[in-house]
Amino acid sequence: MNVMSRLLFISVVMCTFFSCKNEKTKVIRDFNVVEIGTVLQDSLLNVRALEISEGKVVIATPDGRTLFNEENSNQFVELFKRDTIHKPNFRALAFNRKSIFTLSIASPVLLYKDGKLVYTETHDKAFYDSIDFWNEEEGIAIGDPTDDCLSIIITRDGGESWNKLSCDIVPKAKDGEAAFAASDTNIKIVGNHTWIATGGKASRILYSSDKGSTWEVFDTPIVQGLETTGIYSIDFYDSLNGFGIGGDYTKSKSNKLNKIKTIDGGKSWSIVAKGKAPGYRSCVQYVPNSNAKELVAVGFEGVDYSNDSGRSWKHLSDEGFYTIRFLNDSTAYAAGNGRVSKLKFK
Description:
Elements: H1 3-25, E1 34-46, E2 49-53, E3 56-60, E4 66-70, E5 77-78, E6 90-95, E7 100-104, E8 109-113, E9 116-121, E10 128-133, E11 139-143, E12 151-155, E13 163-164, E14 177-178, E15 187-190, E16 193-197, E17 199-200, E18 204-208, E19 216-219, E20 229-236, E21 242-248, E22 259-262, E23 270-271, E24 283-286, E25 295-299, E26 302-306, E27 314-317, E28 323-326, E29 331-335, E30 337-345
Antiparallel strand pairs: 1-30, 2-3, 3-4, 4-5, 6-7, 7-8, 8-9, 10-11, 11-12, 12-13, 14-17, 15-16, 16-18, 18-19, 20-21, 21-22, 22-23, 24-25, 25-26, 26-27, 28-29, 29-30
């Protein structure tokens, strides 16, 4: 063996050795405890719309209030003057880095930008579920079908005006297919990629690669067939790895077909943790900086955690919440019936 061959051989051996060593010693984080502290308590609260931006925690309430607090403060203050005429029932909330948007559910549907009404819909079937933004100018909100397709409205001017997409553009809805206003997590955006989760008698994924200009639709194996079944929440860690959770809130212990994952950007989905807890949950979120391994799911029956991409779960608390958002990779805020809480995972 000549000198060059020997050097190459040694390099290969060393690389192999250290790669194996690093792989064997790689630490997988594992939360075992969640500490829950109440930051707002009000018997009139029933919060499903919560977001975090620049250290501010913002919530929108069913009685038409939009409240916020600064990070590390327990004091929530009203952000905008309440619309006491329309009395909107807010279940969706979004930022576009410049403004705060709040969206009510049933007819008349009311969408506000910084407290100013910018969109109204009065169709008797109108019911909106979620809102999100691609950037400062372009955003999307979704709701149940009023015609033959899911209701999708889009803005391209920073939220000043909104236009409803024609059913010539949006895939036709199946009989009994709609969406759930359970946690404001029916929409997920990563770059220009957009995923929408439907539920009910049919539960599928609508996908757009071009910020809502064109759409595809993909089937999922999650439980469906009844008005109360399907995907209640989705999240994507990146453009490939995504997770969906839900089930049937009227059969909250059922756990056979209520958790699904994708590794190909939502084109195909597989059931995970079949027949294992948790059962019905209304919101799932990836833990930041977890390489698509760590997930937290919440619902009215508690808080659950996975560190293996959803294949197995650990029940951390019986405290019930509807929705959750992470501040960093160990701290989150969650909201539900009567309160908003700060959660520290350890």
